Amino acid sequence: MEFIDLKAQYAQLRAPVMQRIQAVLDHGAYVMGPEIRELEEKLAAYVGVRHCLAVSSGTDALLIAMMALDIRPGEEVITTPFTFIATGEMIALLGAKPVFVDIDPETLNLDPALIERAITSRTRAIMPVSLYGQCADFDAINAIAAAHGLAVIEDGAQSFGATYQGRRSCGLSTIGCTSFFPSKPLGCYGDGGAVFTDDDALASAMREIRVHGQDRRYHHPRIGINARMDTLQAAILLAKLEIFPDEVVARGRIGARYTQRIASRCPSVVTPTVLPTNTSVYAQYTVQIENRAEVSQHLNSRGVPTAVHYPMPLHQQPAFAFLRLGPGSFPVAERAAGRVLSLPMHPNLDEATQDLVVEALRDAVQACREPAPAQ
148 and 95: one domain? Predict the structure, then answer.
C-alpha cells in the first residue's frame, strides 16, 4: 500500500507526460521556455486571477511574495505555529519576526479571533496557511487586514484546487502562494511552485525578483533571487493539469468517504472538519487520535503507512528559540501536534484499500486501548 501513489498516476499519464517532455527536449529552451508562459496562463485562469508566476518551489514563492511587499528586518508577519517550517522560516530569513497566533481547534487553521491582539505597529502582513487542503477563513482575515492596512499572503502549499466561498485557493488574498512538490495535490517531478495576484505592481515586482531582480537583460533595479521554474517541470505540470479537475473531485469524494467510514467504525477518532463554506483537496487526510505512536506502529505492522504532519509546532523548534516562546504558549497547536496522524490519501485510492485502512485503524485503536497483560 502506498501513502501517496504517484506511480499509479504516472501510469495514467505516461503518454502525455512523455509527449510534453519530448517537446522541451526538441526545442531546448530548458529555462523559461514557452511552457512556462503556457502554464502561467492556465493556472491564472484556473485560480481566477490576473497574474501567475511559476517559480522554483513553494518556499521561494513565500519569499518572493514578502520581498515584493518590501517586508524588512525588524518588521512582523503574523502566522500559525502549526505548519511546515518554510512558513516561518522565510519570514525569519528576511530578518522579519514571525508572530505566531494559535489555531482553531476544529479546522487547525489560523484562528481569526486571535489575530487582532497580535497586531503591533511593526506588523506588515498576515500569512495564514490553508492546512491539509482546506482554506483558512479568509473573509475574516482579510477584514482584519484591511482595517489595519496589512497585506495577506496565503500559504496554499497544501490547498491548490480547494475553494472558499466558491473562490479558489491562491486567489483569496493579496498574494497566493502554492507548492508543486511531487506529493502535493498538483505536483511536478521535482521542486516547483507559483505565486498569484490581481495586483499589477506586485506581479511586476515578483517577476523581477524571480530572475535576480532583473527587468531587462543585465539591468537589475532591485535585489532578487534565482527562483525560476525549470521548463521540464512546467511541461509535466501542463500534462497533469489536464486531469487535475477530476482528481480534485476524487480527492473530495475519498476524503468524505474516509470521514463517513471512520465515524461509523472508529467513533473515538477525530476526523477532519471541513467548513460549509469550504471544499478540501485533502492534501493529507489527517485524523486526531490518542496513543498516536502505538496506533501508528500497529497500522504499520498491518502494512498501512502513516505520517505525522506536524509533530512539533514552530515555536518549539530549535531554529525559533530566539523567540523565547515556551511550552503552553499556543496550547491548541501543541495539543494537535501530539495527536495528528495522516492516513494514505491520493486520488487513485480505491474503496477496497480505503476499507482496509479503516479496519486496520479500528483494530489499532481497540488494541491500543486494551490494558497490558499482567506479568
Answer: yes
**Using an 8 Å Cβ cutoff, are 284 and 342 in contact?**
yes
Which residues 6+ apart lie within 8 Å of 267 measured at CB?
Answer: none
For residue 178, give the amino acid letter: T
pLDDT of residue 371: 53
Is position 214 within any domain?
A: yes
Contact 184, 156 (CB under 8 A): no
On whether both 235 and 270 belong to a single domain, the answer is no
Domain count, the chain: 2
CA dihedral 270, 133, 72, 330 (to 10 degrees): 0
What residues make up the domain containing 153?
6-101+108-241
Compute the Cα dihedral for 54, 228, 6, 183 and give only its sign.
negative
Strand, coil or helix: 68: helix
Residues 305 and 336 in one domain: yes
> pTM of the entire structure?
0.96
Q: Which helix (H) or strand (E) holds 51?
A: strand 51-55
Within-domain flag for 24: yes
Split at pLDDT 50, 70, 90, the class of 125 is: very high
Task: Assess whether 50 and 86 both reside in one domain.
Answer: yes
- Assess if residue 375 is contained within a domain: no
Kindly report, residue by residue over 275-287, the tens digit of the pLDDT.
999 999 999 999 9
Please write the tens of the pLDDT for every residue from 34-58.
999 999 999 999 999 999 999 999 9
- The pLDDT, as a whole number, for residue 373 is 44
E-state strands within the chain:
51-55, 76-79, 97-100, 123-127, 151-155, 163-164, 167-168, 175-179, 193-197, 278-279, 285-288, 340-343
Enter the DSSP assignment of 222.
Answer: S
What is the 8-class DSSP label of residue 226? Answer: B
